[in-house]
């Protein structure tokens, strides 16, 4: 009875919440629809399936999964706050799907590694998108000054 009253109040032909076929629900994207998988390869060559949320950066996904530590990679997506410790290597087949790195990102990479290749990226600068579902990344070897 309440639906009929609401339908009358909205008027005929209304395309809002109530349509001619009955109640329709307006929905927002479910979290499940925003999840992508990233394959992260550790120093021993073991592959780990990491879940990430579209819109977050790669480093956030790696830390939330436990693949990377918060202590080594403090949270920030600001490049001016980046220490370069979030450096990752992107598999060749994914390079054309990852947005190009900026000159500022390249400058940070040059500060932390001797030889920058096209595969080196800062994980904090790669925003996850549906196109990156299945992407393969690997940890960069620890630098001598990082080894305890």
Overview of this protein structure:
There is one protein chain. By secondary structure, the chain is α+β, with helices and mostly antiparallel strands. It has a single domain, classed as Beta-grasp domain (Ubiquitin-like (UB roll)), CATH 3.10.20.30. It contains three helices and seven strands. The strands form two sheets. Strands 4-3-7-5-6 form a five-stranded mixed sheet. About 4% of the residues have low confidence.
Entry keywords:
18% helix, 5-stranded mixed β-sheet, 2Fe-2S, Beta-grasp_dom_sf, alpha+beta, single chain, globular, 148 residues, 7 strands, two-stranded antiparallel ribbon, Ubiquitin-like (UB roll)
C-alpha end-to-end distance? 71 Å
How many structurally independent domains?
Answer: 1
What summary fits the major beta sheet?
Answer: 5 strands, mixed
**SSE string, helix = H, strand = E?**
HEEEEHEHEE
- Strand residue percentage: 15-25%
Can you identify the CATH superfamily?
A: Beta-grasp domain
* Spatial extent as radius of gyration: 22 Å
Structure classification: alpha+beta
Tally of individual helices:
3
Proportion of helical residues: 10-25%
